[in-house]
Amino acid sequence: MSIQEKQSQLVEEFSHLKTWEDRYKRIIEMGKDLEKLPEEFYDEKLKVKGCTSQVWLHASLDDNKNVVLQADSDAMIVKGLVSLLLKVYSGAKPDEILASPPHFMKELGLDSHLSPSRANGFASMVKQIMMYALALKQIS
Predict the structure, then answer these.
(1) What pTM value is reported for the model?
(2) Distance (Å, whole) CA 41 – CA 63
(3) CA–CA distance, 18 with 132 (Å, rounded to integer)
(4) From CA 116, how far away is CA 52, in angstroms rounded?
(5) Which residues are bridge partners to 58 per DSSP?
(6) Which of 76, 77, 98 lies closest to 89 in space, CA to CA?
(7) Which domains are delineated in the chain?
């Protein structure tokens, strides 16, 4: 499934949730479903800069040269937000990631419902994913 299709699927899933409270609950649930990172990835060098909460983000390539993203956070809502990004970008080719901004945030209205610090943190997570994609493109 392409990144665009994954984003459309998220928009469809969240469109059934009518209140922001329900949407936030769903985001938190998604964060709870995030797999725990291997211990070695809880490293200072894997922390996303610009996030108020602690966010660790790791990227690698699988055998098919697709980017595999793994992440965790110490804050539930942020953990949910990073899980949305992993759902969209993990498993894609570096070029597809680089060509696909996270338009689902605007379509869901999350960009206007996040606090300024969370919005900045989200932008920092996206920036880190794009930087990983660019770096991994060079070795794929």
Answers:
(1) 0.94
(2) 20
(3) 35
(4) 11
(5) 70
(6) 98
(7) 3-139 (3.90.1010.10)
Shortest CA distance to 30 belongs to which of 109, 70, 87? 87
Question: How remote is the C-alpha of 16 from its chain's centroid?
Answer: 21
Residue appearing with tokens 């080719």: 93
Mean pLDDT of 59-63: 96
Q: Which residue is catalytic, options 3, 51, 84, 133?
A: 51
Compute the half-sphere exposure of residue 92: CA atoms within 13 Å on the CB side of its CA.
Answer: 25
pLDDT 10s digits, 74-124: 999 999 999 999 999 999 999 999 999 999 998 988 878 888 888 899 999
Which amino acid is it at 28?
A: I
Which residues have a Cβ under 8 Å from the Cβ of 22 and sit 6 or more positions away? none
Q: Annotated catalytic, 51?
A: yes
